[in-house]
């Protein structure tokens, strides 16, 4: 990462100090047009170090699976269990470490767990026996493409969306929303930035995302707008680490999307922009959010990774 940080002044000077959205200082430093994840395919040693770091990065910090944060969304009905429904689909789950931690935390919650990531990454998994003994399966998946796991109870994404700017994030979330059942939820496990007075831990994460990936940490209203664009809306936010603002953002299908997918009465369609307005007091124009909702095409400062 260091060469990318060193390239920041030159990169910003070249781009007239605009917020990076396509390329990043990383691209200048490593003289490549590829994004980090693509570049790592050609630099397997870096890829391995990056994945190991992600698995370990929050050690010593407060874990989301520590008994203080409700995980009620994962609870399955007897019918769900009988039908073999997937309880947790960890999208961009890396080496599957969050699934293992979740199982250890709540062994009483039965239901299938699937961890998804790129083939290159899943080839690095060395504890396959441990995963299968915990009923955790691997699924190779590019999250820009159709989500193969349909109707999971929870689609969980930790530190995934902060790696991408808005357009690709919308694609990732749309692929999931298309696969959701009426009662599925998406849980984003991400930093939620405050409007003012961000801590140094938060700003260092934000800087890392900009430097490596032309991406960013987001505020609550930015998450809501992004989710709306993928047919989703925030149901609840549970912050479990105040220093970082690490939070579970629980999102469900927008009522309009439920009607569209499940052919239910359309009586609540008009509520969706109002809900956003109410919650965040932002003028969310109907023209802006509704077409997007239905557009299917489309530790320490150093301890921050992509
Ligand atoms: C910041 S890491 C987070 C990993 C894990 N969720 C965690 O919290 O430790 C982002 C993950 O996204 C994966 N990823 C990047 N591009 C992907 C793609 N197109 N499809 C699926 N996974 C991808 C990376 O391989 C990496 O494991």
From TrEMBL:
Residues 279-306 are annotated as: Disordered. Residues 279-299 have a biased composition (Basic and acidic residues). GO terms for biological process: methylation. One of its GO terms (molecular function) is O-methyltransferase activity. Gene3D superfamilies: Vaccinia Virus protein VP39. It comes from Saxophila tyrrhenica. The keyword Iron-sulfur does not apply. Keywords: Methyltransferase, S-adenosyl-L-methionine, Transferase. PROSITE patterns: SAM_OMT_II. Signal peptide: none annotated. It holds the Pfam family Methyltransf_2. This is O-methyltransferase C-terminal domain-containing protein. Residues 84-232 form the O-methyltransferase C-terminal domain.
């Amino acid at each position: 990462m260091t060469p990318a940080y060193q390239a920041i002044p030159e990169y910003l000077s070249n781009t007239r100090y605009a917020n990076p959205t396509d390329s990043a200082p990383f691209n200048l430093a490593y003289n490549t047009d590829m994004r980090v994840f693509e570049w790592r395919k050609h630099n397997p040693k870096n890829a391995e170090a990056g994945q190991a770091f992600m698995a370990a990065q929050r050690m010593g910090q407060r874990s989301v699976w520590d008994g203080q944060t409700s995980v009620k969304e994962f609870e399955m009905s007897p019918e769900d269990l009988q039908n073999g429904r997937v309880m947790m689909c960890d999208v961009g789950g890396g080496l599957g470490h969050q699934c293992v931690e979740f199982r250890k935390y709540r062994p009483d919650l039965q239901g299938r767990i699937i961890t998804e990531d790129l083939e290159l990454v899943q080839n690095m998994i060395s504890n396959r026996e441990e995963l299968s003994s915990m009923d955790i399966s691997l699924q190779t998946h590019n999250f820009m493409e159709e989500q193969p796991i349909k109707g999971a109870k929870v689609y969980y994404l930790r530190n995934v969306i902060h790696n991408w700017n808005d357009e690709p994030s919308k694609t990732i979330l749309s692929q999931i929303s298309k696969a959701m059942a009426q009662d599925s939820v998406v849980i984003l496990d991400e930093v939620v930035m405050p409007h003012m007075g961000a801590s140094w831990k938060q700003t260092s994460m934000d800087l890392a995302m900009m430097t490596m990936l032309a991406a960013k940490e987001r505020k609550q209203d930015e998450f809501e707008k992004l989710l709306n664009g993928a047919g989703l809306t925030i149901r609840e936010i549970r912050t479990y680490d105040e220093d970082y603002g690490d939070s579970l953002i629980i999102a469900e299908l927008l009522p309009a999307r439920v009607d569209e997918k499940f052919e239910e009465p359309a009586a609540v369609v008009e509520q969706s922009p109002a809900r956003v307005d109410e919650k965040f007091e932002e003028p969310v124009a109907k023209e802006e959010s509704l077409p997007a909702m239905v557009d299917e095409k489309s530790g320490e400062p150093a301890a921050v990774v992509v």
